[in-house]
Write a structure and sequence with these properties.
single chain, alpha+beta, 12 helices, PepSY domain-containing protein, transmembrane, PepSY-ass_TM
Length: about 375
């Protein structure tokens, strides 16, 4: 009786949210290596210096950016620790890719590849709906994700064979070579994909709840006796006033600080202007922006180049650290490239689970009705 309840609940819920789950899974596959794709896309604009040509200084890059948007105080320069790499800069929401030697604008805004990734991300999060429908679409994906979690749990129970012996388990654990019918093939695939990707899917789907529900955030922070923060407030930029030190000198100090603090192999360094009066923030990162433990923020005084403060991931509250860990567990990035690959394969398995689930449901619910209808027509 219990198995029957689980089975029909699993079937009904699967049919109800299957299309949304398929969209989230398929887009998850396409976003598997998002950071690496964006990195590669920017690297295509690398420039070889002409003879005697020197890299632009931070001050020169800032001047070029400010000339484009003189009224914008919040500016980012993103240095990549690789010779010839184009320099991404932001003036507010405006992005440019500059030549590191001439300052020439190589690209305005994002490339078509990155724009496509942004669209896929929107599709993943809120079905790429416009502003008016976005809140409704967010609710749809949120509760579909929650029901997907139920499908994983109920599916784990239903996977257990009625007779617990190797012959029964083998049919649910390993792909068969030969099948008597499409139904038998899809039945086997549904069980095999489900069991092998059950744990990764459970991690991916359960961690997604923190993006959708305040109670999930509260649970993560509550484990450590903390209160979950409210929605992030937009920081208003301060007036951008240059100090006594050239920004290139501050950049040199930041690079030396990285060497002295175990980050000599830094991959990128963000320089943020207009965040605080009299200080410049450097975000030194040894990763592609997907590992909080491999990065830290360094604030330098604009007049003296002294270290004002340092903020590492370990300085966050325990709840915030747990939230950050869950965020990268969702994408698999917590375990690096291997984790991303597993997350991508799990998402692909999610697509197959939806497909085989629909075909199995069709055979159980629709095929008998069609056979009965054909039988009645033949009798006429």
């Amino acid at each position: 009786m219990i198995r029957k309840i689980f089975f029909w609940s699993h079937l009904v819920v699967g049919i109800s949210v299957g299309i949304i789950v398929f969209i989230m899974s398929a887009t998850g596959v396409l976003l598997t290596y998002e950071k690496q794709i964006i990195e590669w896309d920017d690297s295509r604009h690398s420039v070889l210096p002409l003879e005697g040509e020197q890299r632009l200084t931070t001050d020169e890059v800032l001047r070029i950016t400010r000339e484009k948007h003189p009224n914008e105080n919040h500016i980012y320069i993103h240095w990549i620790n690789e010779k010839g790499r184009a320099i991404p800069v932001w003036a507010g929401k405006h992005r440019y890719l500059l030549s590191p030697y001439s300052g020439e604008t190589l690209q305005i805004g994002q490339s078509p590849i990155v724009e496509l990734l942004h669209f896929i991300t929107d599709l993943h999060r809120w079905l790429a709906m416009a502003a008016e429908e976005k809140s409704i679409a967010k609710e749809v994906t949120a509760y579909s994700n929650l029901l997907f979690l139920f499908l994983i749990i109920s599916g784990a129970y239903l996977w257990l064979p009625r007779r617990f012996n190797w012959s029964s388990i083998k049919g649910h654990l390993l792909f068969k070579k030969h099948f008597k019918s499409h139904h038998a093939k899809h039945y086997n695939w549904h069980h095999v994909f489900g069991v092998w990707m059950m744990v990764p899917l459970f991690v991916i789907v359960s961690t997604a709840t923190i993006f959708h529900f305040q109670w999930a955030n509260g649970a993560v922070y509550g484990i450590y006796g903390e209160e979950a923060p409210g929605p992030r407030q937009r920081r208003e930029p301060v007036e951008l006033i240059d100090g006594k030190q050239p920004y290139e000198s501050l950049f040199t100090v930041a690079k030396q600080h990285a060497v002295d603090n175990g980050s000599a192999d830094w991959h990128s360094m963000w320089v943020e202007f207009g965040r605080e009066t009299e200080n410049t923030r450097f975000y030194i990162d040894r990763s592609l922006g997907n590992n909080y433990d491999a990065a830290y923020a360094l604030f330098l005084d604009n007049d003296t180049a002294d270290v004002v403060r340092i903020k590492r991931g370990s300085d966050w509250s325990k709840g915030a650290q747990a939230w950050g860990g869950a965020r990268f567990l969702h994408t698999g990035e917590y375990f690096g490239l291997v984790g991303q690959t597993i997350a991508g394969l799990a998402s692909l398995a999610g697509c197959f689970l939806v497909y085989t689930g629909f075909t199995l449901s069709w055979r159980r619910l629709v095929s008998p009705y069609l056979r009965k209808k054909r039988s009645l027509l033949n009798k006429i």
